[in-house]
């Protein structure tokens, strides 16, 4: 696939667009679309008209708003329904958020949807005669437009787009038929790129599942397929090698909940291991970023030493409970958060390298989810942790199992890194393709979809030269 350039360009006289094709016009958004924010809140008021609400997340996570989407119920006045009901060819976009990266995210409305209206935090660009809705949607997707809105946004803790900035956004506007050609080209090409992304995402899920399976098998069955087995007496463990011990955690070491201390104590002082340090890491960071004004007694009681295993013990969802992180090196003067539990193995019972894999294995997570108490918050108590059955091979075998898993996970993680890098590359190329087409850096007027309708990563690399 090769991309041609237009035969003649002119200066757009705007900082964001640069040179554009000579026959294109430069318009302000307000001249080619009616732009207005919604004021409909997520409430139901007696006496108002029942409606369904197209909200921020409906736009943020979808490029197209479909009639069969699930919308929340609300109410609106007659005037609001008339003004904000979804109409064919509308482009709706996010107008405020916590980050500039999340404003001016747009979705296209291919068909009118009676009874569904735009909610608060959204603005609508309703095309006039000089612009096609699909092309306008791609205008919002371009890096040039994102850059314009990023520097035009106002606010500190929350950023938003003022009406003046939106109205005066510069649009490079080709003739209508050319807009349709560009929109059709981008629909096809982005769909092909999206298919490649989905392929990589499926690969990532397969690799993650394989990683979980390899770890679970090794830490519960060992490495020798011919070793004699015995019934562990534990449903979720099943059979284990006959020479392994299976004991409740309470007989392998001690458990300790983390420190509870006022918010004013944080920000300076001694190292502090947070919930996030455990939740995000199989191996505990040796230099946690958190600081706390802890006492000498605190630092003794809530210390972090090599071999310790920390567990997340409370959260709003069960999915975040029972995650573990193993300490491979003493963290001097450190304490750990109250939402964590520390397990400290007795000397010589459990190798840190084995702990990393056993306490993070999927079967154990399933056990926690099944057994833990859930009221308003999910909670992993010491009683449950202490009665958890732990299969323990001899320490020398624990180390061999960990070394095997180090090698296997390194291979797996390398493939995961490559898949994530491919997704990042495809996202960058997708963005470059959209920007190049809607600003006239490439000429797609004579484009026809290829017979096989497949794009490869090699095709999109050409955009680096555009």
Summary, kept brief:
With 466 residues, this protein is of the alpha+beta class. It is built from 14 helices and 28 strands. The strands form ten sheets. It has a four-stranded antiparallel β-sheet. A four-stranded mixed β-sheet has the order 6-5-11-7. Strands 18-25-21-23 form a four-stranded antiparallel β-sheet.
Descriptive keywords:
466 residues; alpha+beta; Adenine-n6-DNA-methyltransferase TaqI, Chain A, domain 2; 14 helices; 23% strand; disordered C terminus
Describe the overall structure:
The structure is a single chain. With 466 residues, the chain is an alpha+beta fold. Among the domains are: 25-172, Alpha-Beta Complex (Adenine-n6-DNA-methyltransferase TaqI, Chain A, domain 2); 223-392, DNA methylase specificity domains (Adenine-n6-DNA-methyltransferase TaqI, Chain A, domain 2, Alpha-Beta Complex). It is built from 14 helices and 28 strands. The strands form ten sheets. Strands 4-12-8-10 form a four-stranded antiparallel beta sheet. A four-stranded mixed beta sheet has the order 6-5-11-7. β1 and β2 form a beta hairpin. α7 (176-221) packs antiparallel against α13 (395-438) and α10 packs across α13 (395-438). The chain is elongated and about 80 Å long.
């Amino acid at each position: 696939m090769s991309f041609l350039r237009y035969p003649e360009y002119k200066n757009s006289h705007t900082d964001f667009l640069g040179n554009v094709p000579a026959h294109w016009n430069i318009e302000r958004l307000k001249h080619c679309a009616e732009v207005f924010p919604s004021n409909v809140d997520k409430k139901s008021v007696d006496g108002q008209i029942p409606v369904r609400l197209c909200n921020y997340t409906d736009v943020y996570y979808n490029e197209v708003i479909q009639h069969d989407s699930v919308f929340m119920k609300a109410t609106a006045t007659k005037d609001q329904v008339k003004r904000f009901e979804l109409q064919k060819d509308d482009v709706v976009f996010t107008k405020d958020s916590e980050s500039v990266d999340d404003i001016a995210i747009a979705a296209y409305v291919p068909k009118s949807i009676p009874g569904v209206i735009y909610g608060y935090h959204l603005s609508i660009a309703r095309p006039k005669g000089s612009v096609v809705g699909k092309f306008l949607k791609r205008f919002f997707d371009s890096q040039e437009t994102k850059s314009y809105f990023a520097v035009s946004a106002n606010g500190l803790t929350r950023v938003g787009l003022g009406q003046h900035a939106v109205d005066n956004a510069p649009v490079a506007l080709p003739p209508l038929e050319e807009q349709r050609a560009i929109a059709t080209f981008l629909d096809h090409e982005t769909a092909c790129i999206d298919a490649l992304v989905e392929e990589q995402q499926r690969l990532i899920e397969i690799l993650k599942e394989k990683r979980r399976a390899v770890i679970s098998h090794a830490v519960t069955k060992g490495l020798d397929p011919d070793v004699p087995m015995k019934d562990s007496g534990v449903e979720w463990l099943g059979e284990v090698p006959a020479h392994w011990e299976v004991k409740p955690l309470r007989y392998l070491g001690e458990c300790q909940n983390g420190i509870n201390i006022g918010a004013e104590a944080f920000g300076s002082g001694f190292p502090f291991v947070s919930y996030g340090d455990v939740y995000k890491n199989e191996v505990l960071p040796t230099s946690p970023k958190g600081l706390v004004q802890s006492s000498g007694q605190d630092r003794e009681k809530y210390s972090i030493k090599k071999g310790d295993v920390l567990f997340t013990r409370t959260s709003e969802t069960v999915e975040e409970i029972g995650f573990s992180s193993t300490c491979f090196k003493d963290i001097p003067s450190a304490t750990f958060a109250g939402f964590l539990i520390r397990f400290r193995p007795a000397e010589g019972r459990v190798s840190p390298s084995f702990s990393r894999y056993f306490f993070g294995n999927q079967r154990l997570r399933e056990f926690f989810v099944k057994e833990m108490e859930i009221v308003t918050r999910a909670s992993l108590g010491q009683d449950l942790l202490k009665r958890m059955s732990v299969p323990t091979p001899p320490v020398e075998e624990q180390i061999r199992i960990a070394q095997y898993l180090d090698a296997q996970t390194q291979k797996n993680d390398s493939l995961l890194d490559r898949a994530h890098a491919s997704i990042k590359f495809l996202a960058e190329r997708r963005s470059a393709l959209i920007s190049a087409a809607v600003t006239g850096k490439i000429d797609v007027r004579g484009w026809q979809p290829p017979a096989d309708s497949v794009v490869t990563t090699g095709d999109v690399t050409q955009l680096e030269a555009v």
